[in-house]
Structure formats: structure tokens, C-alpha cells
Amino acid sequence: MPAIKHSEKNRPLSPRLSVYRWQIPMMASLAHRASGMVLALFVPVYLFLLTGLTNSPEDFSRMLDWMHAWPGRLILWFTGVALFYHMVNGIRFILLDAGWFEARESMRITARVSMGAGVLAALLLGSFLW
Amino acid sequence: MSETIRLEIYRYDPEGDAKPTMQAYEVPVLKPGMKLLDALNYIKWNLDGTLTYRRSCAEGVCGSDGMNINGVNGLACITDVAGLKQPIRVRPLPSMQVIRDLVVDTTHFFEQYRSIKPWLQAVSPVPEHERLQSVEERAALDGMYECVLCGCCTTSCPSWWWNGNRFLGPAALLQADRWIRDTRDEAAGQRLDALEDAFKLYRCHQIMNCMEACPKGLNPTAAINHIKRTLLARKS
Question: B65, B139, B174, B187: least CB-packed within 10 angstroms?
């Protein structure tokens, strides 16, 4: 009898994230979680800025300079876009939870609307900051 | 028939020690409206008898030939070759233990299905005839009873990829909702109790790959949301 391996440990796992084609609703969900993460990570930066701004007049102008230099602007831009996208898509998720837009096509369209709003916010805020 | 179709197919031989590879094939266009399963059959019957995959009815009812086609899950038997970008990359359903080539181990998938008790539970005495439903009550099961348990949705779900041992996945949850909605079933309370769990149900983050993948045009995301709403309504 030929030796047949039955050990499940030897079985490879079929490829998943590396081969799965990106879909717009998938991106919308991932961007929602990523933007939420950005917002949470911004809290310490925000507290750092707040203590800096309220410490002394010299610290205030130092912080002001930093915020108007490119790292400060970049952080503001990033957080602003994250805040806007997270809000728009958050409303979408709440509406879906409540049973709105449940048809397959509506789910696709609303994902496009959220993503489009995020891109638009990124462009507008970018042109405003630079 | 001069036209040919180029395919790249995931191959894994458990009897050799080699790692999985992608193997290229060329198949002639056999007929108008040719399906991907026709191409696989042509390879198996004419080019390479070692190619292994599951198939049965060949018309989208048995749910045997779920696979990853150009990155998205679907049934080979109802997927037109004409609309696919070439080379058509065919892989087994994602995040599954591969037994051989396109054949994956579905044990865990069906265990999860079994765990939602997919049968009618009723304690009231059996009537003399069938347990009747109104037309409206029956219509509430549309979009759920059509599921063929091919596994395309569950294996497309990133939440299930990362937490598949605890998250039940779209297919089992769609079926759970099917029984919760069924007016003849009398165990909705117990069913909901069993589902109210941070992992079993609430790992769904509305990624909606399940909805995009479903070859029967169903919407497991909407079914999962319906279970969540039913749980909420029960509390208030």
C-alpha cells in the first residue's frame, strides 16, 4: 500500500490576504478601523500640544511654529481626514445597523460614497493647509 | 476553435514534499457560454488527470466547486470564462487546510454550521397536517433558504481568517438567521442566547466580502445585522 500522509499538520493553509482581490466595501471597512486607530493615537499628541500651548508664552510660540511646519501640518491633515472619514462611514455603519441600505447594491454604493467623501476631504483639507 | 484560454492553477500534492505551486494550462474555447468548470474538466480529462477538485451538479446547486477565481470566491460551474481576465488564476478557497490541489478540508466549516442547530425546533404538538405559514411568513425566508453552503462567503471573510476558530462566519450566521426568522421554529430564544457572544457573532465588522463573494446573490452581512437587531430588540 502506498504511504499516504494523513497528518493535518502537513497540510498547507490556502492563501488568503495575499491573493484576495480588494473590494470597495472591504477597503471602506479597513479604512474605518485604520482611521479610528489614527484618532486614538492622536489623543497623546493632542495632550502634548495642549500642555505645550498652555505652559508659557515661549512654549506657545514654539508649538505654534511646530504646528505650522510640515510635521505639524501633516499630523493635522492626517487626523482631520481620519476624523471626517470615520464620522461619515460611522454614520453609514449606524444606518446599516439600523437596517437601512441593506440591499447588496446599496451597500456597494454607500461604500463608494464614504470613500469618495474621504478622498474629497483629503483634497480640500490639503489645499487649505498648503 | 483557434481561441485558447490561459489558466494558472494552484497545485499541491500531499504525497510529495514540495510546496504548493501555480501551474499554467491552455484550454481551447469549447463552446459559447463556456464555464470555468468546463475548462477544469477539459484539463482533467485531456491534459492532466492529476488535477483534483470537487464538483457534482455543475449548475450552482450542490455547492461543491467553490474556489478562489482571480482573487474572488465563486462557483466554477456558474462562472463564465468570457468575463474573466487571463490568465485565470484559480486557487482553493482561502484560509483553509488544503488536502490536494483545489480540495480543502471543510470539517471545521460544517462543524460551525452544525453548531447553530440547522433544523426546525418545535415543542408544540405536531399538527395533523404540515406546520403552515402565510405567504408573507414564507417570503421572510427569501434570500436565506437559497444558500447552498459552498463556503465562498465564509472563506472570503477576513474576520473569519483571523478568528475562524471562534467567529462562526457568514454562512453559519446566515443560516442561524434563517431559523430565527422561521415562524414555525419555536427555539428563537435559545438560538439568540447561543449567538450573543463577542466572537461568535460580533466579530463581523461589515467588511462585506461575503456579500460580494456569494454566487447565489445573497447577503450574509444583512442577515448578521438582522440577528444583531433582533438581539437588541429583545433587550429593550
Answer: B139
Residues B140 and B228 in one domain: yes
- d(CA A38, CA A35) in angstroms, rounded, equals 5
The whole domain housing B26 covers 4-104
**Domain total of chain B:** 2
Q: Domain total for chain A?
A: 1
Nearest residue to B224 via CA among A20, A102, A23: A102
What is the reported pTM?
0.91
C-alpha dihedral (A81, A86, A92, A96), degrees to nearest 10:
160
- Find the domain containing A92 and state its range: 23-129
At position B203, the amino acid (one-letter code) is R
Q: What CATH number did the domain enclosing A125 receive? A: 1.20.1300.10
Q: Is the alpha carbon torsion for A64, A43, B162, A93 positive or negative?
A: negative
Q: Tell me, yes or no, whether A14 lies in a domain.
A: no
E-assigned strand segments in chain B: 4-11, 21-28, 66-69, 72-75, 88-91, 98-100, 103-104
Taking the Cβ of residue A2 and every Cβ of chain B, the question of whether any pair is shorter than 8 Å is answered with: yes
CB contact under 8 A, B14 and A19: no
> What are B's interface residues with A at a Cβ cutoff of 8 A?
10, 12, 14-15, 19-20, 68, 70-72, 89, 91-99, 104-105, 155-156, 158, 161, 205-209, 211-212, 217, 219, 221-222, 225-226, 228-229
For residue A98, which amino acid is it? A
pLDDT tens for chain A, 130 residues long, are 455 545 556 799 999 999 999 999 999 999 999 999 999 999 999 998 899 889 999 999 999 998 899 989 999 999 999 999 999 999 999 999 999 999 999 999 999 999 999 999 999 999 998 8
Question: Smallest CA–CA separation between A14 and chain B, in Å?
Answer: 5
Q: Which amino acid appears at position B7 of this protein? A: L
Q: Which of B199, B195, B197, B198 is nearest to B223 (CA)?
A: B195
